[in-house]
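Thread amino acids onto this structure.
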């Protein structure tokens, strides 16, 4: 234990030394670069009333298209893991199976959106990242950290991740081929076609690997089509996507079962129309999400234990925004119908809906007020009210403070309510989770540097977890008494829109998050709640090696409850020749042994080569 402690101290010291060296380079880069990036022009859509990021009275993180393209990661799940406060827990690679949570919440408590439309799976949150979209289709990702039930209703307890598809692109066709260790190979094709009043985006990809240990092979197919129609006072959008995954699930859902296997198929379609007048915007949205889940406890003996789940979510959302002299008003009505057909969970239906409202106003010069409230109806529990209050003061365009308080809630998943297996038992008597959260922070930018600092606390009641009294017991779904989580986040970054021989860095960012949770009346063993990150330190950098070669780095220090600490390094080097770009990427460069879930080891060093050819 003493040797491990000394080793961790050495790793931290090395990390801080590297950080100091890199930030010293920023001074050199800044003195040579005369082009300034216009950060304040970014508009945030994760709040239903769009506003410039410098006016947002919330803790918001923007993952830009440039961040995505230059990241060492080749999938959305890994990219999210490069931002502190976002906890990605992977059982497999390349998005085969991964969970996402924020600020110590569970994977069930983070809401996933695609262009503002909910992707939450009612069977289990393990399927929330079955994303029916390719990485090349994404313009940016907006992350609201902390409660957002006052805006989005159920399940926005830990935060919201809104994936926004590309807009205003040029005509182009792209071919992407990749290969690497563990028999990894990917083929992808995308096309973007512009008309007089239309934007059309099509993509398809397949990714395969033999796996990094026995029974961790995977085969992933993703297809997406999006069309935008622009008229004088009206815009119409349609998104259609599919994500199919087959993967070996060695010990994914039980330590004693190395021969688990799973297949999921997710189909999603949404259609939205936005009608705009001078003072009023009306925007109806309809959507359907279908998920098929086929699970085998032992693929060598399929008849021994088999799960087949089919879920359908049908939704309707109608939003109206009024621009008045005193502020902006938003009124929204939502209805959704969940349907489950399962050989293990049974046949269940449930109706959900609600009415929400937002009011955003500048009370005094620089002082912004945002009031929100969501009255949610669930046919088994009746009505739930989630109010929220956010206040921000803009001292200058480059510095603001913000604070928020709000109530949030989550309804149980079908698995938590009804699942029965040799190792788990659901609980049909579960109550919805509820929490109240507080936050205080400040953010701004000086020349090329941006910063954000916030402190937060959340007190949750009736939180749901799978627990047991002893190792011999099975896991049971229960409402836990009280969980109090407190934390601190800080980020500082440098960015420039120029990268040439006269600049050392294009981007450089240091992220830190700390979490502490107090579990009252918690005398049993927890499956999920006691394994969130305690310390998360991330350094990312993009710099030039020569005039035409750039390198992207991600250094992650992860200290997780009940797990060993880990220092993980990812890197990607890129070189372009006109239409052709070649990438050489390595994840876990120094071959560190670590885990994110249970006893499942993460892959060691994994080297991949990628080629992208684009015709514009």
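Threaded sequence (616 positions):
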């Amino acid at each position: 234990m003493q040797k491990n402690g000394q080793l961790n101290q050495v790793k931290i010291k090395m990390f801080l030394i590297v950080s100091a060296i890199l930030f010293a380079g920023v001074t050199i880069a800044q003195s040579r670069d005369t082009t300034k990036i216009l950060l304040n022009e970014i508009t945030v859509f994760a709040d239903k009333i769009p506003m410039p990021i410098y006016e947002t009275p919330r803790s918001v993180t923007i993952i830009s298209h440039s961040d995505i393209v230059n990241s060492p990661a080749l999938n959305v799940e890994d990219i999210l893991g490069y931002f502190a406060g976002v906890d990605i827990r992977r059982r497999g690679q390349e998005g085969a199976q991964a969970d996402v949570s924020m600020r110590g919440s569970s994977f069930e408590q983070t809401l996933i959106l695609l262009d503002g439309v909910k992707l939450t799976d009612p069977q289990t949150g393990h399927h929330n990242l079955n994303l029916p979209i390719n990485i090349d289709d994404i313009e940016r990702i907006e992350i609201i950290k902390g409660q957002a039930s006052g805006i989005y209703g159920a399940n926005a307890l830990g935060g919201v991740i809104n994936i926004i598809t590309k807009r205003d692109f040029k005509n182009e066709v792209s071919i992407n081929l990749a290969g690497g260790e563990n028999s990894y190979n990917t083929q992808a094709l995308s096309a973007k076609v512009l008309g007089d009043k239309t934007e059309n985006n099509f993509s398809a990809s397949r990714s395969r690997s033999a796996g990094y240990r026995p029974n961790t092979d995977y085969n992933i197919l993703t297809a997406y089509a999006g069309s935008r129609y622009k008229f004088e006072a009206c815009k119409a959008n349609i998104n259609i996507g599919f994500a199919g995954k087959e993967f070996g699930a060695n010990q994914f859902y039980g330590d004693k079962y190395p021969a688990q296997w799973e297949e999921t198929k997710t189909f999603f379609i949404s259609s939205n129309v936005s009608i705009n007048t001078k003072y009023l915007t009306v925007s109806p949205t309809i959507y359907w999400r279908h998920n098929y889940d086929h699970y085998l406890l032992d693929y060598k003996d399929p008849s021994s234990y088999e799960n087949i789940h089919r879920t359908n979510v049908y939704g309707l959302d109608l939003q109206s925004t009024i621009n008045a002299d005193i502020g902006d008003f938003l009124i929204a009505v939502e209805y959704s119908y969940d349907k489950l057909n399962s050989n293990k969970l049974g046949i269940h239906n449930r109706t959900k809906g609600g009415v929400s409202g937002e009011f955003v106003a500048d009370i005094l010069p620089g002082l912004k007020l945002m009031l929100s409230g969501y009255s949610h109806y669930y046919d088994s529990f009746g009505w739930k009210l989630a109010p929220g209050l956010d206040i921000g003061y803009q001292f200058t365009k480059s510095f603001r403070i913000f604070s928020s308080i709000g109530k949030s809630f989550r309804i149980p998943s079908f698995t938590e309510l009804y699942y029965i297996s040799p190792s788990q038992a659901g609980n049909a008597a579960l109550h919805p989770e509820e929490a109240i959260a507080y936050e205080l922070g400040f953010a701004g930018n000086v020349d090329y540097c941006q910063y954000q600092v916030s402190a937060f606390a959340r007190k949750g009641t009736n939180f749901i977890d799978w627990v047991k009294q002893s190792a011999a017991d099975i896991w049971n779904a229960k409402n836990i008494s009280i969980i109090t989580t407190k934390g601190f986040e800080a980020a500082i970054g440098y960015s420039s829109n120029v990268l040439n021989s006269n600049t050392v860095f294009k981007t450089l960012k240091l992220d830190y998050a700390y979490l502490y949770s107090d579990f009252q009346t918690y005398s049993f063993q927890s499956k999920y709640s006691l394994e969130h990150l305690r310390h998360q330190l991330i350094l990312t950098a993009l710099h030039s090696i020569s005039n035409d070669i750039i390198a992207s780095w991600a250094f992650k220090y992860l200290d997780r409850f009940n797990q060993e600490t880990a220092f993980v390094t990812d890197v990607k080097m890129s070189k372009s020749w006109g239409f052709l770009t070649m990438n050489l990427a390595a994840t876990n460069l120094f071959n560190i042994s670590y885990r994110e879930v249970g006893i499942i080891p993460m892959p060691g060093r994994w080297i991949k080569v990628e080629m992208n050819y684009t015709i514009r």
